[in-house]
Every structure is written in C-alpha cells, then in structure tokens.
Amino acid sequence: MSVNLQKGQKVNLKKSDGEALSRIRVGLGWDPVEQKKSGGLFGSFFGGSAPDIDCDASVIVCQGGHLKAREDVVYFGNLKHPSGAIVHTGDNLTGEGEGDDEQIKVDLSKVPASIDKIDFTVTIYEADERKQNFGQVSNAFIRVVNEATGEELIRFDLGEDFSIETAVVVGRLYRQGSEWKFNAIGSGYSGGLGALGKAYGVNV
Questions:
Q1: Pairing relation of β-strands 55-63 and 115-124?
Q2: Helices (DSSP H) in 35-176: which residue ranges?
Q3: Higher model confidence: residue 180 or residue 17?
Q4: 187: nearest Cα among 178, 196, 174
Q5: Which of 143, 144, 187, 127 has the alpha carbon at shortest distance from 162?
Q6: DSSP 191
Q7: What is the mean pLDDT of residues 80-87?
C-alpha cells in the first residue's frame, strides 16, 4: 500500500514487506492549469487554454550535503550520472496525459558511499522568456515505485502552493546510517534550473 506524505514528512525507503529496497523508479507528473474562455485580450491570447508548459525533472546528487560538480546534476542534457546509479529516462515537452510525465531510475546498490543526498526537482524550461511559473501548473506530484514489482510505495502531492516560482525541489532521498529515507520537500525557487544550481553552489 502506498504511503501518502505531506510536506516535510519523512519515511524509510523499504518494500511493502519491510525489506530494504535496491532498485526504484521515481515518477514526477504535472498538468497545465486550464484557463477559462473569456472575451477581450486575455481570452483571445490564450484561446481558452493555457500555453504549453515544458517542465523538466532533474536530479541533484550531493556529497557531504553539497553539490560538487555539474556532472552530479542529472537532467535532459545529462541523462546518466557518472556512477551509473541514476538514469533519467527522457524529456516530456508538454506534461499532457495521465500518470508520470518524467521518470528517474535509481539503483541504490550502485550509489557511491560518498553520496548522501539525492534531490528531485522540477523546473520550467525558458520560464522567463515564456512568462511562465508554477502558478500555471497543477496536479504536481512525486512518487516512488519498486522497480522490480511496479508497486507504488510513496506519493507526495504538492497541491497548489506556488505562484511566481519557476523551480521546485519536490522530494529528497537521503542516507541515515545504512538506510535510505525519503523526505517530501516542496520548496520553490525563482530562476529555473540556473537558480537551483546556484543554490547548490554550481552553475548549470
């Protein structure tokens, strides 16, 4: 049975039978907010629906709590971490359709011992140029799936708490002793992937 988390909650990363997980799939999803049809400039500009919003899932891999190098950011321009433990399955340009929009596969058995934190983020591509932000995005979520069985173990629905932000740290995997845990984060930033990188001390 899937555990539904609220912002700030944490949970051990285990199978439904209580055993430690090895291979997981992290799915992230979102939808564009539907705009109501109306007259005037607003209605004619949007044509009754929101413009396409290209959200991108990225992974920020930290050592000692900090991002050490650009290669530790896994995103549409760098789909595989050098360790081979984290693989991004590809970019979704519109967020249309049900279910996960983008997925990241993680093999916890291959994560180097020096890595203690793995953050999952979503940013809006060319947000400034397109004048877009997370106030135009709805139904955003992150979920953790047992890769071996397809069973959903953890889910965090973000709600509609964002307005001007263009990047969100959605969730985090982190080590505590010999165990991995998941933390529902839901923290927003303005400035997209570049702002996120700077927050972690690296230019992306």
A1: antiparallel
A2: 40-46, 127-130
A3: 180
A4: 196
A5: 187
A6: S
A7: 96
Instruction: Show Cβ contacts of residue 47 under 8 Å, excluding neighbours closer than 6 positions.
Output: none
How far is 156 from 153, CA to CA, in rounded Å?
11
- DSSP state, 154? E
pLDDT, position 131? 87
CA distances, 167 to each of 12, 70, 123, 158 (Å): 26, 18, 4, 13
Partner residues linked to 50 by β-bridges: none
Cβ contact 118:26 at 8 Å? no
Neighbours of 39 (CB within 10 A): 7
| CA separation, residue 40 to residues 48, 49, 51 (Å) | 11, 14, 17
Task: Round the average pLDDT of the chain to a whole number and report it.
Answer: 84
Report d(CA 137, CA 28) in Å as an integer: 13
